[in-house]
Amino acid sequence: VYEEERELTVMLLVDVSGSRNFGSVSQMKRDTMAEVAATLAFSTIENNDKVGVIFFSDQIEKFIPPKKGKSHVLHIIRELLSFEPQHTGTDINAALQFLTNAQKRRCTAFLISDFIGAYPQPLPKGKGVTDPVTIASRKHDLSAIQIYDRRDAEMPNVGLLKVRDPETGARVWVDTSLSSVRNAYAQAWRDQQAALETIYTKTGMNHISMRTDEDYVKELMQLFNN
């Protein structure tokens, strides 16, 4: 009975939207996300706890209920490496709502995303619903892990460039030689980071932010030491 009461459940909310398929240095964001999630999953079974995964885009793509055991974690690793979503957008609110509905008992949850173009947001007023991030962070021990590429934060000066939004498919020509364009791009990143900081402060959520070319183990240790 004592062991059952102390049993911990860990849920990994993994962003599988189109923006993860980008990388300008050593590897794509999807690879770093998979490595981070795998590390957390293996750490969980080392403690004889349960681990489950929610893969999300702008839909809930797949739910793997929490279980114990090495075979279960190996199944999760295979999905982390090979899973291909049906949609490309991002809806973090939907993922957090699913977590709240699927996991009735308190758990430790890690929201793993690049947060590009989307972050947990309050729902429109008048619907009688508290925003999903507030509900999830109150019910569970929720931490955010942002994984981004250096080019998500800064645009290089490489002249005229045709770019494609991996989530919407929209294509546009960008003149990266213009300092005004590069500055606006960098400011949009800073604005998004500021919005995330506001959410973290409001909810008391633990969080870390790491680049794909950084040591993610060091960053994870920092998260656990907070």
Give a short summary of the structure.
With 226 residues, the chain is an alpha/beta fold. The protein contains eight helices and eight strands, in the order H-E-H-E-E-H-H-E-H-E-H-E-E-H-E-H.
Overview of the structural elements:
The protein is built from eight helices and eight strands. The longest helix is centred in the C-terminal third of the chain and has 25 residues. 29% of the residues are buried. About 2% of the residues have low confidence. The strands form two sheets. Strands 3-2-1-4-5-8 form a six-stranded mixed beta sheet, with helices on both faces. Strands 6-7 form a two-stranded antiparallel ribbon. With 226 residues, the chain is an alpha/beta fold.
**Count of alpha and pi helical runs:** 8
Spatial arrangement of strands, main beta sheet: 3-2-1-4-5-8
Helicity, as a percent range? 40-55%
> How much β-strand is present in the residues?
15-25%
Low-pLDDT regions? 125-129
CA-based shape = globular
Total strands: 8
Report the order of strands and helices. HEHEEHHEHEHEEHEH
The whole-angstrom Rg is 18 Å
Instruction: Return the structural class.
Output: alpha/beta
Distance between the termini: 30 Å
Q: Note the main sheet.
A: 6 strands, mixed
- Average pLDDT: 89
Question: What labels describe this entry?
Answer:
alpha/beta, 226 residues, two-stranded antiparallel ribbon, six-stranded mixed beta sheet
